């Protein structure tokens, strides 16, 4: 196993000018790490001026889908859901409810017509069920 080389800040100053320069380099490296920049993913956490930071972070992770949850009054909340939830019977009931309200011809996004608090309870139950299933699963050798 190869460990990454650890860069250390200077502890002993031999030449005052070079000591200040190396301290400045050390501080700039630390600032880059804090801001998320670096050689690996340059500009990953940077937001352009004039852009809405909430809208720039709208990338859906792999294996997830976006659903909108809320009552029929139009005030919905965007929720990112793992794809495996769509196979769960509790989530299937929510999708059937959405079908009854909106039909199959709903354009654009998936909207689940229920309160956000009810949806969060369903998510917690699915997560707990999945956790128990993994915990109690046995391998036959």
Tell me about this structure.
The protein is an alpha+beta fold. It folds into two domains: 13-49; 59-135, no CATH class. 41% of the residues lie in helices and 11% in strands. The chain is built from four helices and three strands. The chain is elongated, with a radius of gyration of 25 Å. The two termini are 31 Å apart. The mean pLDDT is 73. This is Small auxin-up RNA.
Quickly describe the structure:
The protein is α+β, with helices and mostly antiparallel strands. The protein has helices at 16-35, 53-56, 89-102, 116-135; strands at residues 64-69, 77-82, 110-112. 5% of the residues are buried.
Compute the separation of the termini in Å.
31 Å
The residue fraction in helices comes out at: 40-55%
Strand residue percentage: 5-15%
How many discrete structural domains? Answer: 2
C-alpha geometry: elongated
Radius of gyration: 25 Å
Q: What does the largest sheet look like?
A: 3 strands, mixed
In N-to-C order, the SSE pattern is HHEEHEH
Mean pLDDT: 73
Strand order of the largest sheet: 2-1-3
Structural class: alpha+beta
The total of helices stands at 4
The count of β-strands is 3
**Low-pLDDT residue spans:** none
Family: Belongs to the ARG7 family.
GO biological process, one term: response to auxin
Protein name: Small auxin-up RNA
Keywords: Developmental protein, Growth regulation
């Amino acid at each position: 196993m190869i460990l990454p080389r650890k860069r250390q800040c200077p502890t002993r100053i031999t030449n005052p000018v070079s000591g200040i320069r190396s301290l400045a380099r050390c501080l700039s490296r630390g600032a880059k790490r804090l801001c998320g920049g670096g050689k690996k993913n340059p500009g990953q956490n940077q937001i352009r001026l004039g852009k809405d930071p909430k809208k720039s972070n709208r990338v859906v992770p792999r294996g997830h889908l976006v659903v909108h949850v809320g009552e029929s009054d139009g005030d919905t909340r965007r929720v990112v859901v793992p794809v495996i939830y769509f196979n769960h019977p509790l989530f299937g009931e929510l999708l059937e409810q959405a079908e009854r309200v909106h039909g199959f011809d709903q354009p654009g996004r998936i909207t689940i017509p229920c309160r956000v608090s009810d949806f969060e309870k369903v998510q917690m139950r699915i997560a707990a069920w999945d956790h128990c299933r993994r915990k109690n699963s046995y391998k036959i050798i």
